[in-house]
């Protein structure tokens, strides 16, 4: 049986690498209802870590890593994810803890992924 959560993680990493130059070093995806929840470690580039070491730099990197990521998915519709899940991508919520370099992305689809892939 195909591991859809692992496949989804690979698509997220490839998408970020393609559009941002770097993907997270570790991703774990969990399907919960119509959400694909991705926990990500190792998101920040060396330059971002340097900028975040300054007090006001932390907020700047956080804004870039949340708002810009959402914008990236709006401009580049994640067709591969829809094809893998056979579901329509609706929205994305993103947050990141800059100090811990831990990110969380919640992808919202039009179907119950948990039911569909965990019979």
Keywords:
single chain, 119 residues, alpha+beta, four-stranded antiparallel sheet, 5 helices, 4 strands, 48% helix
Description:
It contains five helices and four strands. α1 (4-20) runs antiparallel to α4. It has a four-stranded antiparallel sheet with strand order 1-2-4-3. The protein is elongated. With 119 residues, it is an alpha+beta fold. The longest helix has 21 residues, at 55-75. β1 and β2 (35-41) form a beta hairpin. 22% of the residues are buried. Helices cover 48% and strands 26% of the residues.
What order do the strands of the largest sheet run in, or round the barrel if closed?
1-2-4-3
Elements, N to C (H/E)? HEEHHHEEH
Q: Count the beta strands.
A: 4
Task: Name the overall outline.
Answer: elongated
Helix content: 40-55%
SS content category:
alpha+beta
Outline the biggest β-sheet: 4 strands, antiparallel
Q: Unreliable stretches, pLDDT < 50, 5 or more residues?
A: none
**Radius of gyration over all CA atoms, rounded:** 15 Å
Strand fraction equals 25-35%
Could you tell me how far the N terminus lies from the C terminus, measured between alpha carbons in angstroms?
12 Å
Mean pLDDT reading: 94
Contiguous helical run count: 5
Domain Na+-translocating membrane potential-generating system MpsC: 2-111
InterPro entries: MpsC (IPR018745)
Pfam families: MpsC (PF10057)
């Amino acid at each position: 049986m195909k591991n859809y959560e692992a496949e989804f993680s690979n698509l997220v990493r490839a998408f970020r690498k393609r559009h941002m130059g770097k993907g997270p070093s570790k991703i774990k995806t969990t399907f919960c209802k119509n959400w694909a929840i991705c926990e990500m470690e190792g998101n920040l580039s060396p330059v971002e870590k340097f900028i975040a070491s300054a007090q006001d730099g932390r907020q700047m990197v956080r804004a870039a890593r949340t708002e810009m990521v959402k914008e990236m998915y709006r401009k580049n519709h994640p067709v591969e994810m829809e094809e893998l899940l056979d579901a329509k991508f609706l929205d994305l919520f993103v947050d990141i803890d800059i100090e811990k370099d831990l990110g969380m992305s919640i992808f919202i689809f039009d179907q119950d992924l948990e039911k569909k892939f965990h019979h």
